[in-house]
Amino acid sequence: MEKHTSKKRKKITPQQLKKWRKDTNACEHDKVGYQALMNLANGMFARSKQDAEEMKKIIGVLDWQKDHINSLKKMNEMLVDRYEDAIENLEKQIETLTKQRNDSTRAYNGLAQMGKFAEDMGIDLQSAKDDLPEAEKNKYDFKQTDTVLESGKVKTEMKLTPKKKKEKDQCN
C-alpha cells in the first residue's frame, strides 16, 4: 500500500492575503467578489471556445484517419483476394503438371519395358529405330494409354492402327 502523505498548506502572509483580496475583490470574510467571478467565467468561456475549435480540428484528423484506415483495409482485402486467386491458379497448374509428368513417366516406363521385352526376344532395336511406330514414314498411328489400377499397378495399352491416306489437292 502506498503511504499517503498530506502536504501542509503554506501559511499565507498578511501581505499576500491583502493582495489576493484586492485581485479578487474579496470581502473581509475571504469570499470572492462578483467581478472576479465574472472575469473567471469570461476566461473559462473563451477557453472553452478555443478548446471547441481545437476539438473540431482533432475530430477532422480522426475522421480522415478512420477513412484512410478503411480504404487501406479495402485495398488489403483486394490484394489478399488477388493473391488467393493466384495461389489457387498455381495450385491448379501444379496439379495439371504433376498429372502430365506422371503420365509421361508411365509412358516412358511402358516403352522401356516394351524395349526390354523386344531385346529379350532377340530384336535389334538399334537397327529398327527408324521403323518405330511414331516415325512419320510409318504406315501406322501409334497410341499408348496408361491406366493406374486400384492395386497401384499401371496397365499399359499400345495400339497400332493403319494411317488414313490424306488426299492431296490437285490443281487443274
What does this entry show, briefly?
The chain contains three helices and two strands.
Q: Please, could you describe this protein's structure?
A:
This protein has 172 residues and is mainly alpha-helical. It folds into two domains: 14-73, no CATH class; 93-161, no CATH class. It contains three helices and two strands, in the order H-H-H-E-E. Strands 1-2 form a two-stranded antiparallel ribbon. Strand 1 (140-148) and strand 2 form a beta hairpin. It is rod-shaped and about 135 Å long. The mean pLDDT is 82.
Q: How much β-strand is present in the residues?
A: 5-15%
Instruction: Tell me the number of strands.
Output: 2
Query: Segments where pLDDT lies below 50 for 5+ residues?
Result: none
Describe the strand arrangement of the main beta sheet, using strand numbers.
1-2
Q: Assign an overall shape.
A: rod-shaped
Helical fraction: 55-70%
Draw up the topology in text:
Blueprint: H1 14-24, H2 34-120, H3 125-128, E1 140-148, E2 154-162
Antiparallel strand pairs: 1-2
Using brief descriptors, characterize the structure shown:
59% helix; rod-shaped; 172 residues; mainly alpha; two-stranded antiparallel ribbon; 2 domains; 10% strand
